[in-house]
Design the sequence.
């Protein structure tokens, strides 16, 4: 999916006439004026490189005019880029981690098989050799206690990064995360800060079974005092990792098992992403689609179909699961008046449920239609491939939902 | 031993002098005497996988008298807390430590304030031992502003960061991995200090204890796990909860020591020994054989699962304060009357502290929202990493730093030069933005998160109610595109 997505950008030619109308794309104007470095560099088949902050809007034009071009043309994008370097998502995470460990000697990593083995998803590969056993710690299989130890160490000023081999295993550490991690800053009257990062892959993978396909963001979302972010591209993975490490608050970084091999070109310079900010993936007019993590790619795939059918969806990757970036979301709703939430959480008590409530509370007057929330089914994830496919939201369902919403 | 003989032989002469030295205003030299004294512990130590330390403990008259005073303070404090609870000034849970004072005192005597202590919910006396004041204790118990956690923690959440007291935890056993984490940080920073993680006989059956112990032993952490065995896990006696009540042996490969927890000197010796051991050889378990007179908490009478005879028996035979009193009198370090005077002083101190704590106000309503997160969110991280080029420059329209008071709220106005910073700030929580077109008066254009369309005064007031840090940003009008 991701390959196709990237391929579309690569297959189309740069067209200077595709300058956006500044009045129409208010939000992207704001973004470009913010001087943010281009987050997505597309290498065209004609060898020219797309620079500048008009990045996103141009690509949206390309999507509209060339929506039928679904063939991945990644072979063409081999010409050397003038900026940035290409890497996979897990490498981007590792790069962010390494930069932060270089910068601050208080940063350490603990988790199962993160050291000598290099990490079960290779995120920490090579770090143990570079930093030694005291900074990259292999723990026994004892989530409750090593998460507790990370929190205890954070109370004194260290900045540990606790890796759960799979987010589902962190349920064993729920007490430590909820009571100690989230609440210590409050119950101590501000004496202790807990600058810990808890990260790991979650989400529905490829037939991993029910217990290894859990979405913990819905369980953790009510814990006061923690921040939750979900990364979806190599760019924001590295940026969010760095921001999470530097943050004084406890941050839970949700990665997705299926997104580790996404490839993207990211800037050479140092950058971080704001933890509380949502990402505008595709500006649009007709409907706001809010999503995060892997569902972003399902949504973009559906967006292609929708564009063919004449719809203009605005896609926002909310990224920050706690707190929600109601500013970006609100502005979008005020423009489009229709909201579709596409998430991988369960329907009951998921991120989408909270987001629906938050939007209804704050932006009720701007809505022309009820909020539609597409979530995973409230079932344990089955093993069989076909059943698992229907547990999560598929692009076809997104298309149908938008069509119904926009009637 | 020679010294104690010396002091007893001089007792005859001091007896004659006693009536004169009883005067309240004369400095009694012995109370600051640091002549070493060696005293034997009540019972020898029992050890597991290590050599037991010697039964003879070095101490000084000054130390013994300070033990007495501090333990008397702790005892009086707990009894006062009992009365306060019954008077409904203290609500919720209140777990009292009377009977166990020797553990807190002895531990303090054996270590420094750079070492860390972490314990469970029976933490009032441990907090006091670490340097907390009576006012902070009573204020926190009554939920007042002057409490050590500003009234937001309560009985089970006392903390004192500057003297290494890490709390104060409500969930049984959860503090043990935290304690091992503290020890890890001490090893990481090469501090040459240790962590004492205290838990009870009930928590000794928690899995996370063994998980944390395994990791601590693997990584050679300077962690000392101290089981305060008062023989009852709430209402369940230890023989009904633990197959093997030898908690000091439970570490298997980790050495352990069983200590009479009612003897402050034995506790001191054990803690000193444990500290030396942990710095060289990794974790150790100490089991303190102690007893609590009150029930598990104030809602537990404490007599349904044990007999009153048992409680009074322990009080008569093993009470830690009586032990020290007898020692002081036997070595003639103070007279009975002086000790009684100390107790009276202590009682007065406690009563004064309670009176002062009662006057302390309740926390402000805005305190509900403070300390949930550390201020700043992504703002400071953005500025530092991206080289945002922003400064908290306190100019507004070429005027000097603008700040002031509106009603009873402070606000500051900052100018921010870079858009990156602005973008980040925009999505921070407690932030309002305004734009000053060409030096004119500020115009509020956009706010975040629920505070849309507020005017300045309203804005400040609403922030004031929540006590958020209010930052009003001024930008040149040409760049002001944040329109709603």
Sequence:
């Amino acid at each position: 999916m991701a390959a196709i997505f990237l391929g579309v950008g690569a297959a189309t030619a740069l067209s200077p006439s595709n300058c956006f109308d500044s009045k129409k794309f208010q939000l992207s104007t704001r973004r470009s004026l913010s001087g943010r470095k281009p987050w997505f560099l597309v290498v065209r088949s004609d060898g020219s490189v797309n620079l500048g902050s008009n990045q996103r809007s141009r690509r949206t034009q390309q999507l509209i005019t060339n929506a039928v071009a679904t063939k991945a043309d990644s072979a063409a994008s081999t010409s050397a880029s003038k900026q940035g370097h290409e890497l996979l998502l897990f490498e981007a995470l590792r790069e962010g981690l390494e930069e932060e460990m270089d910068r601050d000697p208080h940063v350490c990593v603990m988790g199962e098989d993160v050291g000598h083995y290099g990490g079960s998803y290779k995120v920490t590969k090579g770090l143990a050799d570079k930093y030694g056993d005291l900074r990259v710690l292999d723990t026994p299989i004892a989530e409750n206690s090593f998460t507790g130890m990370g929190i205890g160490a954070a109370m004194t000023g260290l900045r540990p990064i606790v890796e759960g081999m799979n987010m589902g295993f962190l349920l064993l550490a729920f007490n430590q995360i909820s009571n100690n991690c989230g609440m210590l800053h409050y119950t101590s009257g501000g004496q202790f800060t807990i600058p810990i990062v808890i990260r790991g892959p979650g989400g529905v993978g490829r037939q991993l079974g029910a217990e290894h396909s859990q979405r913990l963001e819905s369980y953790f979302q009510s814990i006061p005092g923690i921040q939750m972010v979900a990364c979806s591209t190599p760019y924001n993975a590295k940026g969010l990792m760095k921001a999470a490490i530097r943050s004084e608050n406890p941050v839970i970084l949700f990665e997705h098992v299926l997104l580790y091999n996404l490839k993207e070109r990211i800037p050479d310079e140092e950058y971080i992403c704001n933890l509380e900010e949502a990402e505008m993936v595709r500006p649009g007019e007709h409907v706001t689609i809010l999503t995060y993590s892997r569902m972003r790619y399902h949504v973009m795939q559906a967006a292609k179909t929708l564009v063919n059918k004449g719809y203009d969806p605005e896609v926002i990757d909310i990224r920050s699961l706690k707190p929600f970036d109601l500013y970006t979301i609100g502005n979008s709703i005020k423009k489009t008046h229709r909201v579709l939430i596409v998430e991988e959480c369960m329907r009951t008590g998921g991120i989408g449920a909270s987001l629906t409530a938050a939007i209804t509370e704050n932006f009720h007057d701007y809505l022309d239609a009820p909020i539609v929330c597409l979530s995973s089914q409230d079932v344990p994830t089955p093993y069989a491939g076909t059943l698992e496919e229907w547990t999560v939201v598929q692009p076809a369902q997104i298309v149908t939902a938008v069509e119904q919403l926009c009637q | 031993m020679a010294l104690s003989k010396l002091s007893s032989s001089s007792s005859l002469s001091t007896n004659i002098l006693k009536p004169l030295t009883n005067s309240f205003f004369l400095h009694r030299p012995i109370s600051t005497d640091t002549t070493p004294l060696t005293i034997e512990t009540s019972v020898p130590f029992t050890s597991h996988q290590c050599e037991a330390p010697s039964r003879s403990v070095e101490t000084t008259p000054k130390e013994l008298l300070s033990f007495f005073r501090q333990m008397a303070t702790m005892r009086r404090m707990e009894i006062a807390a009992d009365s306060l609870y019954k008077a409904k000034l203290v609500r919720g849970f209140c777990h009292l430590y009377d009977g166990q004072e020797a553990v807190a005192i002895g531990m303090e005597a054996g270590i420094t304030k750079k070492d860390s202590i972490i314990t469970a919910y029976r933490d009032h006396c441990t907090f006091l031992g670490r340097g907390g004041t009576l006012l902070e204790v009573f204020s926190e118990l009554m939920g007042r502003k002057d409490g050590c956690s500003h009234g937001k923690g309560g009985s089970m959440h006392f903390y004192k960061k500057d003297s290494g007291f890490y709390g104060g935890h409500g969930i049984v056993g959860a503090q043990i991995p935290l304690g091992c984490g503290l020890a890890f940080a001490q090893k990481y920073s090469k501090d040459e200090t240790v962590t004492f993680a205290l838990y009870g006989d009930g928590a000794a059956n928690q899995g996370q204890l063994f998980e944390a112990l395994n990791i601590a032993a693997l990584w050679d952490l300077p962690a000392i796990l101290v089981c305060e065995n008062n023989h009852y896990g709430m209402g369940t006696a230890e023989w009904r909860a633990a197959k093997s009540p030898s908690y000091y042996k439970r570490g298997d490969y980790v050495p352990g020591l069983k200590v009479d927890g009612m003897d402050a000197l034995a506790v001191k010796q054990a803690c000193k020994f444990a500290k030396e051991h942990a710095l060289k050889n990794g974790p150790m378990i100490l089991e303190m054989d102690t007893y609590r007179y009150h029930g598990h908490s104030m809602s537990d009478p404490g007599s349904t699962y044990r007999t009153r005879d048992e409680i009074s028996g322990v009080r008569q035979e093993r009470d830690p304060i009586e032990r020290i009193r007898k020692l002081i009198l036997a070595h003639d370090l103070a007279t009975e009357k002086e000790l009684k005077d100390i107790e009276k002083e202590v009682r007065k101190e406690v009563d004064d502290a309670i009176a002062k704590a009662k006057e302390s106000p309740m926390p402000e309503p805005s305190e509900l929202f403070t300390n949930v997160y550390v201020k700043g969110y992504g703002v400071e991280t953005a500025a530092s990493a991206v080289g945002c080029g922003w400064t908290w420059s306190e100019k507004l329209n070429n005027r000097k730093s603008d700040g002031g008071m509106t009603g009873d709220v402070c606000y500051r106005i900052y100018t921010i030069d870079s858009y990156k910073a602005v973008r980040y700030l925009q999505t921070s929580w407690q932030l309002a933005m305004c734009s000053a077109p060409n030096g004119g008066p500020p115009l509020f254009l956009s706010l975040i998160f629920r505070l849309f369309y507020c005017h300045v005064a309203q804005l400040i007031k609403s922030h004031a109610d929540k006590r958020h840090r209010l930052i009003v940003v001024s930008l040149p009008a040409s760049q002001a595109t944040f329109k709603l």
Q: What stands out?
A: Residues 1-81 of chain A have pLDDT under 50 and may be disordered. Chain A touches chain B through 68 residues (CB under 8 Å). The first helix of chain A runs from residue 2 to 11.
